[in-house]
Amino acid sequence: MRFEELPTPCYVIDEALLERNLKILNGVMERTGCRILLAQKAFSMYAMYPMIGKYLSGTAASGLYEAKLGYEEMGKENHVYSPAYRKDEIDEILSICDHIIFNSFSQLERFKDNIRKAGKNIGLRINPECSTQEGNGMYDPCVAGSRFGVTLKNFRPDLLEGVSGLHFHTLCEQNADALEKTLDAVEEKFGQWLPQFEWINFGGGHHITKEGYDLGLLEKCIKRMQQKYGLLVYLEPGEAVALNAGFLVTTVLETMENEIDIAILDTSATCHMPDVLEVPYRPPLFGSGEAGEKTHTYRLGGPTCLTGDIIGDYSFDQPLESGDRLVFGDMAIYSMVKNNTFNGMALPSIAIRDKHGECRILHKFGYQDFKDRLS
């Protein structure tokens, strides 16, 4: 079917746009010899894993279920990190993952017998205590009191036997200058131990496929670790893989006025695009402008009972009417993986738009999907 024929609400992944991102990432791999993994926490649409697997080295998981998904659907390198592993899951994790990254020395000690039997690559997450972000500390793993990674104060060189690499993840939607600054902190605090490892993982948060990103500086940072310490370098971006490669198609259900014109859509910020409220941010909307920029300004909201279920204020050349279709951009990342059925909201369908512009629906959700989440 054509794009305009899709039911709403519907997530749509554009194959050509996704492949564009993958080619950029693959270019970094080819020029430097690093390995780049898909961080599934941002994008877990496994129907696209065959394409992603053609360009990237594998997957990165945040726990057992993501690890199983990467193992089953991509079948390449499979890395996992968690702040704390469950005892009843650790053996299965060890059986399906190539790299298991621990958050603390106490976790390493707790599972040392399991680790020894598995014979896998074991990593340790470090905290270089180098904040490069401004504003919301919710997205800063180096904020004071962070639960992520071992600080220099708590580092135990005597317990490094069997650890083959170090991992850090400190960035969020940032350019390579933040990575360069972080590497300075990593070397200052942990540099004396780097030569004894085989690999280092730079984590995620690298906005590699965003326009204006400094690819040259990124590659310089990668080569710095390779040439100085002989380390294999991993990166595990999620957002960069599917940045601007997806859409959310929605329909106007009703319009009203209460000191401002309001349009109620069949999609919800809190249910279908939760990062709009959590980050927060204003998603791009095709054919619209900022509030007041065009003739008709509307506050767009969802149909749930949450007063704050507001997507944002947008302006249009013509008044909105019931039945109008609106298309939000950059809706691949942190959307499908975080959506929910609050208020009994139906989940959006999931579709692919191929390189010829044809769309195919992969999955439709209904009442049973809502009911099966409950008991």
UniProtKB/TrEMBL annotation:
<dbReference type="Pfam" id="PF00278">
    <property type="entry name" value="Orn_DAP_Arg_deC"/>
</dbReference>
<keyword id="KW-0456">Lyase</keyword>
<dbReference type="GO" id="GO:0008295">
    <property type="term" value="P:spermidine biosynthetic process"/>
</dbReference>
<dbReference type="InterPro" id="IPR029066">
    <property type="entry name" value="PLP-binding_barrel"/>
</dbReference>
<keyword id="KW-0663">Pyridoxal phosphate</keyword>
<dbReference type="GO" id="GO:0045312">
    <property type="term" value="P:nor-spermidine biosynthetic process"/>
</dbReference>
<keyword id="KW-0210">Decarboxylase</keyword>
<dbReference type="InterPro" id="IPR005730">
    <property type="entry name" value="Nsp_de-COase"/>
</dbReference>
<dbReference type="InterPro" id="IPR009006">
    <property type="entry name" value="Ala_racemase/Decarboxylase_C"/>
</dbReference>
<dbReference type="GO" id="GO:0008836">
    <property type="term" value="F:diaminopimelate decarboxylase activity"/>
</dbReference>
<protein>
    <submittedName>
        <fullName>Carboxynorspermidine decarboxylase</fullName>
    </submittedName>
</protein>
<keyword id="KW-0745">Spermidine biosynthesis</keyword>
<feature type="binding site">
    <location>
        <position position="239"/>
    </location>
    <ligand>
        <name>substrate</name>
    </ligand>
</feature>
<feature type="binding site">
    <location>
        <position position="275"/>
    </location>
    <ligand>
        <name>substrate</name>
    </ligand>
</feature>
<dbReference type="InterPro" id="IPR022643">
    <property type="entry name" value="De-COase2_C"/>
</dbReference>
<feature type="domain" description="Orn/DAP/Arg decarboxylase 2 C-terminal">
    <location>
        <begin position="11"/>
        <end position="331"/>
    </location>
</feature>
<dbReference type="GO" id="GO:0009089">
    <property type="term" value="P:lysine biosynthetic process via diaminopimelate"/>
</dbReference>
